[in-house]
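Exercise 3.2. Students should predict the tertiary structure of the chain below and write it as structure tokens, then compare their answer with the key that follows.

Predict this chain's 3D structure.
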Amino acid sequence: LRYTMAAFGTDWKSKVGPWLELLEELKALSLDNALSLPQICVAGDQSSGKSSVLEALSGIPFPRGYGLVTRCPVRLVMRSAPEWSCSVSTTSSTQTITPKSPDDLTAIILRLTETLTQGQKELSSDAIIIRLSSPESPDLTVIDLPGIVRTETSERGVRVIKHINNLINHYLEEDRTIILAIIPANQDIATIDILERARIVDPAGERTIGVLTKPDLIGPGNEQEVVAVLRNIRKPLKLGFVMVKNRSQAQVEEGLSCQTVADDEETFFQNHPTFSCLDQRLLGSRNLASSLARLLIQRIKQQTAPIKRQLEGMLSSIRADLRAMSSCGSASTAGQRQRLLVTLTQEFVRHLNDCVRGEYRDRIIVCNPNLRLYTRALIIFHELQSKVAATAPPFRIKNFTSKLACQMEALRGRELPGFMSAQSFYMFIQEFINAWDPPARMAAAQMRALTNEVVRDLFENIAASYPVLRESFQAVASSILETSEHEALRLLEGLVLREKDPFTINEFLQAHINKLRYDRFESSVDAAFKGSILGDCSGQSGSWQATKSHIGASLRSWYLSAHGVSSSANAEDMSAILEAYWTLASKRYVDNVCMCLDDRILGTLCGKLQETCYQFVHDEAKLRAFFTEDRAMAIQRSRLEKTLDKLSKANASMNNIQAERRPSRRSVQPPLTPSGLKFKLSVAVESQGLGLQLADEEGRVVTKGFRGASQAQLAEIQVGDILIEINNSPCGSFQSAISTLKSLPKGAVQLTFLRVS
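Answer key:
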């Protein structure tokens, strides 16, 4: 039995090859870890015949035995070729082993398995990769997984069983994986574990195909049950079932060739009294290979567009990360380092000034809320306001008035009865104002710490690649902020001293004193009328004269206590004056403190920082230290650039695969409509050109990908954008546009694109 491409059709090779090669290119780029790629996974119970199925498909002898034979995934990449050739490697090493014959493979697989599992009876997630080319091989790629283990043994503990289950589930859960479920035909299909696992991850049964093995071990009278399974009656799957007969242990020991075994399989099904009456497409390894090849190609075609969209999303994300890490220019010469320092300083000061002024228009500040300095400063200002308000004495509590009366008596000098001492007012208000100083000092310290934090975070966003420069800028900013805080504290001391010397021409004071006095009068009137009503309710005479007498007595008593010539009356009036002035002065003090911190700490920082940093321009030793790139950042950028290169190559490979299109009824394509986004950008022409991959689509110059880590990758150009102008001149034909681009000198070029929605 020879699985030549001619057996599948004369043009099968040309149709299938590009799709399978695309899949292998993506895997070769290690993108199968980041992308879910179409693949066929062979899974089933331990010793169910998995490796035997692969052996029948490939013609190479896989290790056989009892117990856990397959202890790591084995990816078998088969291609049809005139001559037999093979190479074996692992995903954890770049070393490749080239066997001379199929018989050498068994020992190589066993040796690599021991290497991956470190000689222990354990499993490995790393895979063995076998690339096989031969006249008998179908164009197919399959993955053999370890067998499902249900019970513990001396070499298979709970940990090993858990590892096996996790490894199998990892492959089966990939939504683009085709599950090749291996089922011994001599077992009850209702008890097969792999079908239950497949049902969980593939409830619709759209990516599961069943393979019945060991038909020669079916007990007498059970053939009809197997026929019901093959006809998709007993356990329906949308992809159905195929039955194969593998080499028996006796045939292995006799050393029969794969061709002889294949002939034996064909003879077995043709002569079987029950299976010979079935549709022959359901039987044999040859039909299984054909079905799997077609199924895999169909799956790849279906998933190409979704994979491409996912790939382009990853490309966009990587480019954004690289843009965020990119520096503002080269720093290889002294002049370049000077210009770069000036550029970074200007850029930093511009952003910092926006943060200070609360103007959040730039992308860096919009995307990083922690950089919104003035918004966070307002929180400190409001906290200061709350803390100062919390120091207010309890002016309206009776105990406060009584205590105030005692203090006023203790301070009485030559004042005549009925007169209040101005000295008492000054002493009381100074005592209250002393409580404002700690919250103001705390606000200054918080403002300095906040500004330091924003300076650090902002420079990490602008020049993350240069840690020495970042630390120097931070040190300069810290020194400036320390000086600014000391200046602010001196001004705050002056504010407290000025407030301790009461002064105002604000009419608020008079109005507030009158309001407080009126409020007290109004409260006494309410209390008098309330007392009158309560007296009526208690049975007293309800006559107007009695009510009038009660109210009058109550008001006279209040008047004497509030306005009489007594220490309590003076204390009541002093309390109102103190409350009115404290309210006025505290509001004025909070405003002045906030303006002082805004001016001294925030307002002077940008100018002083720029002036100090410019002094480094002529210090070549410091410039060299400044622009030594962070090693971790350089490694990260290199990793991103390599990933970008892989993704770009993968995207270019996918662009070369043209999806099948229905023939158009119109021979002439409609002209390009102007709908879409038209945008212009400047791109640097490097020694290797623009780095764009362009294609001719019906006379249009369409972006299909990128070459290497070019400036075009870092621009906002996307796959599918149509180039319409070069340096403000129309592109014309595709050849004309290519000629113009090739003739461009190094430097910036203006490109106009149309992005059709």
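Discussion points: The radius of gyration is 43 Å. The mean pLDDT is 80.
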